[in-house]
Batch of 2 targets.
Target 1
Amino acid sequence: MKRLIGFGIGFLYLGIAFGALQRANNGWDTGYSDVGFWWTVIAALLTIAALGALGGTWIHTQKTES
């Protein structure tokens, strides 16, 4: 159950990061480089959080040999 919740949160963060990246792309395309830049920063931070959630979930839900 913990693994399912952890992976769910990780994939949710990836989805939000993808949305932020789309907003950044819209900002760059319309000539608002400041909007594009900051949404790119937000997308990068969300991607790091998603990878941390996925990796941490994988590491901390492994069966131990006890």
Target 2
Amino acid sequence: MNFTKFFHLISYLQYPTMLIGFYFVVRPYITGEIIEDPTVMISAINTILVCMGLSVSFSTLQDTTKTQNNISKKIWQDPKKGSLFILAICFMILFILCFGLFGYFVSHNTAFKEISLGCIVLSIGLIGMLKAAKEMFENHRLDKNS
């Protein structure tokens, strides 16, 4: 088995990771913990952010020479749409990372500090996604690959 196929198979761990995060968000409602202690939701939000960061990191292991659907193919083939999408990812990463770093290092609110750690993990995962998006854009651009 070659490395591309191996990493592509590992990338499917993104789905169970998101399901685990979803479980931690839903669990306080099922067990009734949210009624007894509403602050338990802060911990659940942090857990889902960490799981989302891991899930996005796993998704970046996919084969970037293939597109998942026709919508993504249209985005990556068009130089303007692809550039805008990469720029949007950059701004999203910057916003989430700054939010997380501010909350972790500057804020004195304990709830904000806890959620900020999940934001930092999510932004690290998104940085990997940015690299994968750049590779997708390079592999599928019609103006460069024609």
